[in-house]
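call fold target=Glycosyltransferase RgtA/B/C/D-like domain-containing protein
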Amino acid sequence: MKAEISPNSLTLRSSSFLKRHIHLLVIIASSLLFYLTISMIDLDFYRAFADLGSHMYVFERVLMGDVPYRDLWQNDTPGLFYAGAIALKLFGMNLYSMKLLLALVLTLSTAILFLIAKKIMPVPFAMAVAFVSVLWGNLILNIPYGGWFSNCFGLLALLAFLEYQETMKNNTLLLLLCGAALGMAFTFRQHIGLFYLIAVALLVAIAVLFFENWQVEAKPRSGYFKLLVFLSYAVLFVISAVLMPLVFLRRTMATTEGLSIKNFLVFFLPVFAFNLLIIMIFLRRIERDDTTTDYRRLFMLLLKREAGLGIGFLVPILPWYIHFSTIIGWKTFFQIITITHPEQQSFQQGYFQALRLPSLSAHSVLLAAVMCALCGAVILLLIFSGSRRMLCASIIAVASLLVMSYLMFFPLDSGFVPMYYLPVALEAVLFPIIYRRMYFQGDLLNEKEAAGILAIAVYGAFSYLSLIILVDRYHYQMLIFPWLAAAGYLLYIVHHKSSCSFRNAGYLGKTRQLAILTAASLPLLLLVVGKPLAIVMDQYQSNKAYSKSAFPAGGNVVFGKMEIERGGIYINAAFLEDIETVVSYLRENAAQGDYLFGGPAINMFNFLTGMPFPSRHRYFIFDAVSSRQQYEMAAALIEKKPKYYIYDHYYDTNPDPVIALEFFRQFPPIGEYVSSNYTFDYKIGRFYLYKRKDALKPSM
């Protein structure tokens, strides 16, 4: 006889579920509401015009059956293509479909970050971390970069690893899940997924060697550990004796081909701090540990754990790797995945040369050196001192430097560089905290919490290093999430220490505690909260300036909804009318099957009008095109004869129709064809339309 389930028991279960997960549900509901609201308004549409249009056009072509890399070229992995195509299929053929998908992905990322933060800090601090992450979550561009998806799956992998590390049981399923999440991160952005895989594989090794059953398993006097110590010293030697001199010698170079001070701050300092951590751990173990270990058992255990992680990683990757290898060849596809394909290299080189990023000024060199010295000094002081006052001293020192760097850099470039200091500063403080707890007796956190924050810090360091492939503030926003958890943990530690002694302290003692708390909190709040808000204000001012130039009578920013069929979002009214007029004009005058060609990067009109681009290479912006792509493009123009050529003079300081026609002169195989076969037809705001000469109506 089946047991009956009473309505009261169902009510109790529902009530119990809500009580256990009320904070998570609040995070999900509030972040989803915010993302859905902000996704309707594109504050930076005039800059997003290029990348957003390019992505949307590719997603449409994939949905219509085109094969990436063969029928169209895009420097992304397959996951992004098909996620975008599915979004257009489910939510409709319009711009808002992708923004809706991004809202869902970012909501999931925020929820996972909350669950991660909750493992190392109380719920109120974890909720604060989650809410702050919303400000960093694709607030400006709303462009479907693959990094947003990789970040979400990477956080899921980190959460799965933390669950595995807490139980430390033979739970292969958690490692398989962790590996599968890393494989999905690789599917959307290969270099980010690869750095995540390296980080988690290292964490699995550390867990097996040091935290298995929460006992030290390995004997540090072995050759294995001595080799690791030697390699750490070797890395430090290369950084200090080779890379740093190159930084100073080549800091005046104008392109990213040379190592600049920003490269040093972003990439080399975290490696420096991380290697110091490794050296500290192994040297301390060599001094203390004289246990014996069954290395054969330990090796087999490590091999089993890493194999589970690797199998999970391959599960989501192998199907699409086999699929594309059979279409375009395994060798070609392997080059694409490893970012060694000639067309990828030419694009990256041309793109970075076109940006002409300047190196930082001389005073930033001094600041970088001070930062490096501070990191080393703080770590060394905490190694050789058991005093807990050193913790507060290091926090105040790093906080002061953050304030100084923010004040020094903000007038120069709107605070672009200071946000890179956050992970560096946190590493300088977090690693010593972990070290002190694991090798000195203290009351800051227990061993499992130390292992948790160590995992987050190592994961964050490797996600930070993935910026080596491509560094800009938008990719930085994608990778900031684990460091937000680290920042929240640091504030929790400072608050905890201050509140413990605050109650029994006198007036001067309370004042001192408040000063310490403020000094440690304010710089982090400036960088963590103030930076995204500063970006918003910068984009608003840019919109205001554009509105003033478009409508001299007034410069107020007014947003209007794109009423055209494939629009559905609100953008700056200063160029809304121009875009809608161009789309209407092309739809009225172009025939079914006509191609639309132009530059720089006008694929937004290909998507909004449904007119295909004549070549699989369609991202023409500045000089980021190889000669091979130019000849292929010229052949496509001769074959398909697009009726219209459109030019966006937003990037042009001298918007003249004749000069605009010369844009493709920098692409010799294309420029001659364009100037010979097209003539100016119509000006619509910032856009010039040119028509093929043989398509003009004969004069009466």
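return ok
Residues 507-550 form the longest helix (44 residues). Strands lie at 559-561, 570-572, 596-599, 644-648, 678-684, 687-692.
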